């Protein structure tokens, strides 16, 4: 989902600085100096996915034309600005980059809506304020990363072990066990079709004798029949509904290690998977000036119609 634009009239640093490689941002927009650039980039569609990837074309493929009548900035001022930008190495961060930490992209500033980012080696703070100062956002909160991760995960664990959540787990397990398994009829129907096909193949062998093709077909059907019978035996097995104490114990076992999660994630893939799971569960956590984070428990994403009260974390 695309992030909605700001409605407070303040500028984000990315809108001003942009990216040098793309020529984006107010300070890098060559149109202001009367220079029009075409064919700078392209969007490439990935086969079979429907998604598109942005790719910058080589500079020798750009089409550049001068239109002095469009100029609103003098060439001298333009050159001074570009020199200063190059000296400082100033640019906006690449959009879409994956976060380095567990809560990247989850914690949001309650004042301006920007993400809380690592503003130094130890602390989260409002990314908008960090890049644009008071003019961008005046929420000066700073929170230690280790502290916020520990309290955040402890808060999630507490909410997941609440009586309302345990009751939801009981209802959901009972509902799924009571629902008829629509796959059962399909499996039985396919088993009947396989049995009929087996009879036809055996009949053909009796008439014309065995051949490589008939033998391969026979073996394939026999294997499929065995697989279907094994699957049906599993599907039709009656399982007793666990009692409330058992559900609660299993739920607690699952959540006991949650507070140690940051130390257990060893790869970028594991980190991204854990972060996405937290996003699916909580969405965004809006952190106010006092360090209180608020989010909406989203178990209803798993079960339509199930809702809970907003969750509050003291970060």
Give, in order, the helices and strands: HEEEEHEEEHEHHHHHHHEEE
Main beta sheet: strand number and arrangement?
4 strands, mixed
Helix content: 40-55%
Roughly how many Å apart are the termini?
27 Å
Q: Unreliable stretches, pLDDT < 50, 5 or more residues? A: 92-96, 300-310
Count of strand segments: 11
- Give the averaged pLDDT, no decimals: 76
What's the tally of helices? 10
Summarize the structure in words:
The chain has 315 residues and is α+β, with helices and mostly antiparallel strands. It is built from ten helices and eleven strands. The protein has helices spanning 13-17, 75-88, 127-132, 145-160, 163-178, 182-208, 212-235, 244-256, 261-264, 268-282, and strands at 35-38, 41-45, 52-56, 63-66, 107-109, 116-118, 123-126, 142-144, 285-287, 292-296, 310-314. A four-stranded mixed β-sheet has the order 5-9-10-11, with helices on one face. Helix 5 packs across helix 8 and helix 6 (182-208) runs antiparallel to helix 7 (212-235). The longest helix has 27 residues, at 182-208. The chain is flat. The two termini are 27 Å apart. Residues 92-96 and 300-310 have low confidence and may be disordered.
């Amino acid at each position: 989902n695309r992030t909605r634009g700001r409605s407070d009239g303040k500028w984000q640093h990315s809108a001003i600085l942009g990216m040098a490689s793309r020529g984006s941002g107010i300070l890098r927009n060559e149109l202001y100096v009367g220079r029009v650039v075409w064919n700078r980039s392209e969007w490439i569609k990935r086969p079979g996915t429907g998604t598109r990837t942005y790719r910058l074309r080589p500079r020798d493929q750009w089409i550049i034309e001068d239109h002095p009548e469009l100029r609103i900035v003098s060439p001298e001022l333009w050159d001074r600005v570009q020199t200063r930008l190059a000296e400082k190495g100033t640019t906006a961060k690449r959009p879409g980059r994956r976060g380095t930490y567990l809560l990247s992209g989850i914690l949001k500033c309650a004042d301006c809506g920007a993400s809380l980012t690592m503003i130094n080696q130890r602390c989260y703070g409002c990314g908008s304020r960090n890049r644009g100062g008071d003019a961008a956002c005046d929420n000066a909160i700073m929170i230690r990363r280790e502290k916020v991760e520990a309290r955040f995960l402890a808060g999630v664990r507490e909410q997941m072990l609440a009586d309302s959540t345990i009751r939801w787990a009981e209802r959901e397990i009972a509902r799924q066990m009571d629902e008829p398994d629509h796959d059962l009829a399909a499996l039985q129907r396919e088993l009947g079709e396989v049995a009929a096909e087996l009879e036809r193949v055996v009949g053909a062998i009796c008439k014309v004798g065995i051949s490589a093709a008939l033998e391969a077909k026979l073996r394939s059907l026999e294997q499929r029949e065995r697989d279907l019978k094994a699957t049906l035996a599993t599907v039709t097995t009656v399982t007793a509904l666990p009692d409330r104490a058992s559900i609660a114990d299993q739920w607690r076992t699952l959540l006991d290690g949650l507070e140690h999660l940051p130390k257990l994630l060893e790869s970028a893939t594991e980190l991204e998977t854990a972060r996405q799971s937290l996003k699916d569960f909580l969405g965004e956590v809006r952190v106010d000036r006092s360090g209180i984070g608020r989010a909406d428990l989203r178990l209803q994403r798993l079960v339509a119609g199930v809702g809970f009260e907003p969750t509050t974390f003291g970060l």
